[in-house]
Amino acid sequence: MYPELSLYIAGRFIDARGRRTQAMHDPATLQPLGQLPWAEAEDVEAAVQAAHAAFTGWRRVSPLERSDLLRRVAALARERAPEIGRAMTLDNGKPLADAVAEVLNAAEHVEWHAEEGRRVYGRVVPSRQSGVRQLVVREPVGVCAAFSPWNFPFGQAMKKAAAAIAAGCSIVLKGPEESPSALVAMARLFHDAGLPAGVFNLLWGVPADISRQLIESPLVRVVSFTGSVPVGRQLAALAGLHMKRMTMELGGHAPVLVFDDADVEAAVALLARLKTRNAGQVCVSPTRFYVQSGIHDRFAAAFADALAAVKVGHGLEDGVQMGPLIHERRFLAVHALVEDARAMGAELLTGGRRIGTNGHFHAPTLLANVPQGARVMHEEPFGPVATMSCFDTVDEALRQANALPFGLASYVFTRSLQTATRAGDGLEAGMVNINHSGMAHPELPFGGVKDSGFGSEGGTESFDSFLSTKLITQI
After folding, report:
1. Cβ contacts of residue 298 below 8 Å, gap of 6+?
2. Is the pLDDT of residue 460 over 90?
3. Which residues sit opposite 139 in a β-bridge?
4. What is the CB neighbour count within 10 angstroms for residue 415?
5. pLDDT band (50, 70, 90) for residue 440
6. Engineering a disulfide at 249: which of 142, 176, 226, 462 sits with its beta carbon 3.0 to 4.6 angstroms away?
7. What percent of the chain has pLDDT over 90?
8. Which of 218, 220, 110 has the alpha carbon at shortest distance from 462?
9. Distance CA 85, CA 98 (A)
10. Strand order in the sheet with 409-413
């Protein structure tokens, strides 16, 4: 039932025979799934050369033809969503419904890029001199080296691939070794849709070695990375050294501002769902809750009850709302943050423990009265852990929310237009959600500020990294 894993280079699927491999296990049961082949240096070079050769022809393919191909990819993704989602659940533990929804959402992104790729317009600039023609045109940059994360393996990778391919670029994707099956399926989608060999290539292996080789290659012109802040800093420094343009969508530590006039029941229901989505392993997961003093105790009790009621289990079981963490290292890292906070005097309102004896399940956890010196107040937990603090004024809430170097997502709950406007203007974040969450649509930009990165993984802005601007003057 679990698919065979492979590399995909120059239009060929390359299996594990005769190669170094990594054993894959179900994080919910620890049962073996399969073997992931790792790329060696010669494979990386072959992928770059294939992408470079393919770019020469792909850049000349009309936007209409590129659009038609991407539409075929989207249609195939919709047809195969159940099987892709099931394998993804076995890889990283997320509930099946969420995994299938990820594939369907990615299909929307492909369709959107298929259309927007036809609208990469230039312009004519009036000349100061008679008889001179001045044109500004947009051209594909070249080979893209892309690095995608394990928490949304299909969705995040497809955003990069669809934008690059629609723009006329070719791509070498270094996939996440923790959750590979969806990307092998993605390569199969492009292959079956008729994408020319070499336009899309897929690698796995030693992350540091592959990253360095790709970024240092003179044939690679753009770097797109989604992942942690520390790794993003390293790759950005390396890319900057070699003058590569970049898109960096990095980690967050999302603040939540809940004001006295908020609809508590609606806020609790939404935030409990967002906090436990993918077991909290989401860069935009709400984490630091700042609740105004008038409703603090009421909100804390309701939110603790909502987290405790979340059904945790294997993602293939009916009704499961939250699966396991990706591996034991992630469980230990999350639990260490909880224990550190408790040792410093934080109050545990719910969770804080392992669930069961098999798999990497951590109970949804709420900590109150957490000292500012606790690690969880400064380090992204990337797990089902939330902290709660009290505030009195809007300025106090904004000061606490903006205190960290992160600036990806943020959330506000209030019935006051004035408060919503002040919070929306004052939050230092790339995305502000007021009384709801609406960041995943393809027509919207997706990115952060400060240490959470730069560039966009969505919207028309997502084409910027893959297109260069050329001025043509002619007399």
Report:
1. 264
2. no
3. 468
4. 12
5. confident
6. 226
7. 97
8. 110
9. 8
10. 347-350, 365-368, 385-391, 286-292, 254-258, 409-413, 431-434
**Does the annotation mark 390 as catalytic?**
no
Instruction: Give me the catalytic one of 102, 108, 169, 283.
Output: 283
Instruction: Considering only the C-alpha atoms of the chain, give the largest distance between any 2 of them, rounded to a whole number of Å.
Output: 80
DSSP codes, 18-45? TS-EEEEE-TTT--EEEEEEPP-HHHHH
For a pLDDT cut of 70, what percent of the chain falls above it? 100
- In the block, which residue shows the tokens 């590979």? 180
pLDDT score recorded for residue 1? 81
Place of tokens 């709400």: 286
CA distance 431 to 424: 9
Q: What is the dihedral of CA 44, 47, 52, 56, to 10 degrees?
A: 180
* 249 in catalytic set: yes
Please write the tens of the pLDDT for every residue from 298-335: 999 999 999 999 999 999 999 999 999 999 999 999 99
Cα 87 to Cα 15: distance, rounded to the nearest angstrom: 17
DSSP 349-415: EE--SB-SSSS--B--EEEES--TTSGGGTS---SSEEEEEEESSHHHHHHHHTSSS--SEEEEE-S
How many Å apart are CA 132 and CA 124, to the nearest integer? 11
- With contact defined as beta carbons under 8 Å apart, do 199 and 170 qualify? yes
Q: Report in angstroms the alpha-carbon separations of 27 from 18, 90, 93, 279, 318.
A: 27, 7, 6, 12, 18
Place 75 in a pLDDT band, splitting at 50, 70 and 90: very high
Find the helix packing angle between 417-426 and 394-401, rounded to 10°.
Answer: 30
Q: Give pLDDT tens digits for 116-164.
A: 999 999 999 999 999 999 999 999 999 999 999 999 999 999 999 999 9
Helix (H, G, I), strand (E, B) or coil at 252: coil
Q: How far apart are CA 327 and CA 332, in angstroms?
A: 9
pTM score: 0.96
Among candidate residues 111, 178, 249, 380, the one labeled active-site is 249
CA distance 407 to 409: 6
Q: Which two tokens stand for residue 404?
A: 């960290």
List all residues 6 or more positions away from 321 whose beta carbon is below 8 Å from its beta carbon.
95, 273, 276, 310, 311, 312
